[in-house]
Amino acid sequence: MKPVALLPLLAAALCGSLSAQTPAAPAVKPLKVMLITGGCCHDYKAQTEILKKGLEERINVTVDQVHVDDGSTKPKLPIYGNPDYGKGYDLIIHDECAADIKDPETVKGVLKPHQDGIPAVALHCAMHSYRVGEIQKPAKEGTQDALWFEFLGVQSFRHGAQKPIEIKFGKKHPATTGIKDWTTGNEELYNNAKVFDTAEELAKGKQEGEKDSVVVWTNLYGKDKVRVFCTTIGHNNTTVQDPQYLDLVAKGVLWATDKMDSAGKPKAGYGRQKKE
């Protein structure tokens, strides 16, 4: 065999050796998400399963459910009295309806993980939970009345009757890229008593007989500007299981955890995962 003929064989052997010695890139760990549901006025038993399944099908997350079958306005959620309830999680989704949980110390405990830097997604009746003080008056920043509203970025105290809502998206934002304007089935349009300076409006809703209101927005919470993604949409199961709604919530999760690029695409490893 001529010496020159050995070169391809040596190159192939060297490549094989390098390949064997170079470990494959480690798989990206799923985002660990806590989903809190329970309380008044909604089919949370179904919706917690819809949200878990919908999110885990769309992005690289594992969703742990914190749910109580308590239909009161004071649901006995296990997070109360435990300010470290978010330890080990990358994000918390607040989807509870706790309208009469008003004790400031309890509310501070719910907020503690977010004050410590854990981002959040807040859905529908989370806006009408943990409201301290005179909720119908715009809350002043830094006061006890503003505890929960400063976290959300928008203050609301009422909603209209269940009717379709026309949702129109405004300025471009990574969290709403690819989400088109749509009209829901019967839903509740929450009012805006105050929109805080830390909030960025992404979509408005129009409903017969009601004043147009912000229905999708982002907020930067506290001194560390912790990311919070919010939508007031999501009362009925038909809305929650709508693919467009689930896409919106999934995008909110990625934006809040900073796992989305400026074009609105998941960062490497955080998009839809192939099933084995």
Task: Give an account of the 3D structure.
The N terminus is likely disordered. This protein is globular. It has six helices and eleven strands. The longest helix is centred in the first third of the chain and has 16 residues. By secondary structure, it is of the alpha/beta class. Helix 2 links the parallel strand 1 and strand 2. The protein has one domain: Class I glutamine amidotransferase (GATase) domain (Rossmann fold), CATH 3.40.50. It has a nine-stranded mixed sheet. It has a two-stranded antiparallel sheet with strand order 5-8.
Supply database-style keywords:
alpha/beta, 11 strands, 24% helix, nine-stranded mixed sheet, single chain, disordered N terminus, Rossmann fold, two-stranded antiparallel sheet, globular, 276 residues
Secondary structure: elements and pairs:
Layout: H1 6-21, E1 31-37, H2 44-58, E2 61-67, E3 91-94, H3 104-115, E4 120-123, H4 147-152, E5 154-155, E6 163-169, E7 182-187, E8 194-195, E9 199-206, E10 213-221, E11 226-231, H5 237-240, H6 243-256
Parallel strand pairs: 1-2, 1-3, 3-4, 4-11
Antiparallel strand pairs: 5-8, 6-7, 6-9, 9-10, 10-11
Helix pairs in contact: 2-6
The biggest sheet, with number of strands, parallel, antiparallel or mixed sense and barrel status, is: 9 strands, mixed
Q: How many DSSP E strands?
A: 11
CATH architecture name: 3-Layer(aba) Sandwich
Query: How big is the Rg?
Result: 22 Å
Beta-strand percentage? 15-25%
Helix content: 10-25%
Average predicted confidence as pLDDT: 92
Question: Helix tally?
Answer: 6
**Residue runs with pLDDT of under 50 for 5 or more positions:** 1-25
Query: What is the CATH topology descriptor?
Result: Rossmann fold
